[in-house]
Amino acid sequence: MPRYVEDPNKLNARARGLLEELRDKGTLKMKDRLAIPVQRPPVLDPGERSRWQEEVEKPLTPAQAVLESMRCIQCKNPACVKGCPVAIDIPEFLRLTAEGNFSAAIEVIKRTSLLPAICGRVCPQERQCQKDCAVGKSLKDVGLAVAIGKVERFLADWQRNQAQAPVPRIKSPSGRKVAVIGSGPAGLVVAADCRREGHQVTVFEAFHKLGGVLRYGIPEFRLPKEVVDAEIDLLRRMGVEFRTNFVVGRTRKLLDLMDKDGFDAVFIGSGAGLPVFTGMPGEDLVGVFSANEYLTRANMMGAIHPGRTDTPMFVSRRTVVLGGGNVAMDACRMARRLGAEEVVVLYRRSRTEMPARAEEVEHALEEGIEIRFLENALGVLGDESGRVRAVTVQRYALGEPDASGRRRPVPIEGDTYELPADAVLVAIGNNSNPLLTSTTPGLEVNARGNIVVDPETGCTSLERVFAGGDIVLGAATVILAMGEGRRAARSINEMLAREAIEEAADAPRAHAAPTGHWAPGRLRRRRLALGTRRRG
Amino acid sequence: MSSDFEISRVLGEGSLPPSRRRRLRRLGEDASDPAVHEGSEAVPGLPEGSLEPVPPEFEILSVETLAEKVMRMRVRAPLIAQERKPGQFILLQTDVEYGERIPLTIADADPRQGSITLIFQVVGKTTQELASLKVGDALPVLVGPLGTPTHIEKYGRVVAVGGGIGVAPLYPIVEGMKAAGNHLTVIAGARTRELVILESEMRAMADDYIVVTDDGSYGRKALVTQPLKELCEGPEPPDLVIAIGPPIMMKFCAETTRPYGVRTLVSLNTIMVDGTGMCGGCRVNVGGKTRFVCVDGPEFDGHQVDFDNMIARLGAYRDQEKRARDHACRLQALAEKHPHA
Fold first, then answer.
1. Cα separation of A220 and A414, whole Å?
2. 3-state secondary structure of B103
3. A416: which strand partners?
4. Can you say how many angstroms the Cα of residue A492 is from the centroid of all Cα atoms in its chain?
5. Chain B residues near residue A297 by CB distance under 8 angstroms
6. Could you give the ipTM of this predicted complex?
7. Cα four-point dihedral sign A509, A512, A515, A521
8. Is A278-428 the same fold as A177-273+431-501?
9. How far apart are CA B286 and CA B292, in angstroms?
10. Quick one: pLDDT at residue B43?
11. pLDDT of A485-502, one tens digit each?
12. Crossing angle for the helix pair A90-98 and A62-70, to the nearest 10 degrees
């Protein structure tokens, strides 16, 4: 039996007691709602959990979820919906949850967000839906806002544990084919949305396992892989086809998917996988890793199960992590779990500027990880065999605000020191991976290598090719990638529906009149090929 | 503002018998938007007009031993066979859950048959497992073709230097260079006679074929750098040298040609995970810049590569690998001691 910070049974009993009291009160007033304490989910004891991969935070209990939802005051003009990148009807799902109608509540979420079990866990709620929550404002603490993300996660987990998720209705086969490149958050959403319209959907994944960053990047202790598996399983049951070990751009060129394989539309959701290195001296020493590599070895290649996997993991006692985002937090907590006795994170700004999710920072600190603010690595020092022995650290002070509005960190001249270390994990960001863009002529990218799309439709410079997620946004979040996927899927579905109508109208003439027009001509060629194949 | 919550229903839900839970769920569904929830049946199989069924991918079509611990294997991989170009490689795993990803150069391909040829030396656990596979078995993971292809053009006189197993990745490059009209000299080096591979294939293509062995058991008793130096000093020095083999050999080939200013390409084989530029584990320092072998390479200007750093990085996991080998040895000893355990 794992140890918890607070006994889950006690948490639940307290919530039930409060619910009983509130029932006796009858109709709740605003004052009563604001008086309900924010419900904290059961959390594993930090001392123990920092040696395991088990998920740190458990879902709220049903009573807690109801109670937490009752804290919502049902604003007429809800700020939470505006803060949500995909505009989930938050007051409505909270109202249904407060009524105990969990299945209706989860369906409200699923109208707009396809991956609530994932988003409930990884969204930076304190900067989105919960940021301007009226409850949090009234109580003058964003930490006391309605815990929307925790309720969302509760509902999604509740549904997953009830029964196999029902397969949504799929329209009758349209005869159209959609290729999705990348099986991360954006790709999964496009696959689901296009499949529902009856299109045949094939997802191409470069790795041998599906899920993209959800698989190789975000660790088990933050996002259990069974959650990702359940989402992918649902897509499979919907009839989405998956091709792993398939690098579009290398195994097959993107344009060949359309010209040779007969796909009518392509969605690129290949992500931002190109780790940024600092270029500082010593960065190529043995023991310096990108967080991408470190986490991939641990999560996807199974190095979290030492003894069972063939993929080796660098053993370190003193690990230094560079960066202040979610990836840095994942990396430092992973290093801790893989046996590092000392883990120090260097972040060159202050805590308020840290881009990581507030909860991950708290969890990291609880697990005994030290975060040194206003400090950054100047270089890595090695021993005579080329292995890391220390990091040279520069101290900073906050100066004038920069273009991003954040106060610029300014190095304090001469204020440096040596920090002993045997491993350094670089987690300062990702650029767009050029593998696909460089092998696809005509695909327009900006100076940073991101694919340029029409902001309304997600359409790229190439006809029938759409893109979304980190390959467009630069490294962003799961929910933004999902939102991008939704938008692109809508455009793809509209385009294919329009063509089906045009084709039906053209059909009698199409056989008679020769045409040089590219798109319909190509479509007809394909239909003919299909017909031949069936006859043969 | 009103609230109509029913506390008993809410609190009870977690502990209800399954039948009642189902009923409650149906109630919930009724209350929700009907459009969200039409139908709940799984779609059987794939929709009409789906891609034709894929034959067992990555099936092993043939296995043969070329030399001690050196194997040649043909694997079904139709798409890779079609797309691959000289200089490119694949990554494979022998186990989908816990296998390690190792890069191997594509030694040859037959697009009509839909197969690629891999040549590898048994050195670690993964190559050992690979060598134990039989015709008809299938590799669970095989991805490619990866890396930037060799730039093939007519340079004039090209010297291709292969050390040991390095002759295998050299083969498709030699083939391409010959087809482009270059005069080709192949220098093949090995520790001893038994380890000389692909001799007849190379002889058939090369204008000159020089073989050297460390122990003098075949050809000249020399290192590959000796004939290379002679060629550079000779009346018709090479316009391009391509050297593939152990890192130390490539380093000394580059040092040999440097004084003569002969352009020298080397093909690097570093530690990789994804092979698409995502992890950066394969990075090397080339001319003071960090480059990724998997996407920028595997071929680089040998005069610019920091070989010492690369060799150190190749040994990053030496301790762990040694421990794994010792562990495997102990297990084997145990198994031999207790054959029926």
1. 41
2. strand
3. A394
4. 22
5. 273
6. 0.86
7. positive
8. yes
9. 10
10. 34
11. 999 999 999 999 999 998
12. 120
Query: Which of A293, A436, A523 best probes binding to B when mutated, by most B CB atoms within 10 angstroms?
Result: A293
Q: Which residues pair with B92 in a beta bridge?
A: B102, B142
For residues A91 and A109, the answer to whether their CB atoms sit within 8 Å is: no
| pLDDT tens readout for residues A409-450 | 999 999 999 999 999 999 999 988 889 998 999 999 998 889
Q: From the CA atom positions of chain A, what is the Rg in Å? A: 25
Half-sphere exposure (Cβ direction) of A237: Cα atoms closer than 13 Å: 15
Nearest CB neighbour to A19, from listed B11, B50, B274: B11
The residue count of chain A comes to: 536
Q: B94: which residues sit within 8 A by CB, 6+ positions away? A: B126, B129, B130, B133, B139, B140
Collect all residues of chain A within an 8 Å Cβ-Cβ radius of residue B316.
286-287, 314
Q: Domains of chain A: which residue ranges?
A: 8-162, 177-273+431-501, 278-428
Pairing between β-strand B240-244 and β-strand B264-267 as defined by DSSP bridges: parallel
Tokens of B86: 């000289």
| Residue B217 backbone phi and psi in degrees, to 5 | -75, -10
CATH 3.40.50.1240 fits A177-273+431-501, yes or no: no
Residues of B in contact with A23 (CB under 8 A): 5, 7
Distance, in angstroms, between A16 CA and closest chain B CA?
7
Q: What is the full DSSP assignment across B11-45?
A: HHGGGS-HHHHHHHHHHHHHHS-GGGG---PPPPS
pLDDT band at residue A522 under the 50/70/90 scheme: very low
Is the distance from CB of A76 to CB of A393 less than 8 angstroms?
no
- A319 within 8 A of A332, measured Cβ to Cβ: yes
What is the homologous superfamily of the domain A278-428 according to CATH?
Answer: FAD/NAD(P)-binding domain (3.50.50.60)
pLDDT digits (tens, 9 = 90+) for B138-181: 999 999 999 999 999 999 999 999 999 999 999 999 999 999 99
Residue B40, both tokens: 């709940």
Does the pTM surpass 0.90? The reply is no
For residue B298, cis peptide bond before it (omega within 30 degrees of 0): yes
d(CA A396, CA A348): 7
Phi, psi of A28 (to 5 degrees): -90, 135
Location of structure tokens 């400090």: A375
Q: Which residue has the tokens 């804290």?
A: A71
Residues with Cβ within 8 Å of residue B22, at least 6 apart in sequence: none
Give residues 259 to 298 of B whose Cβ lies within 8 Å of A: 273-281, 283-285, 290, 295
What domains, with CATH codes, occur in chain B? 60-146 (2.40.30.10), 157-267 (3.40.50.80)
Q: Which is the CATH superfamily of the domain at A8-162?
A: Alpha-helical ferredoxin (1.10.1060.10)
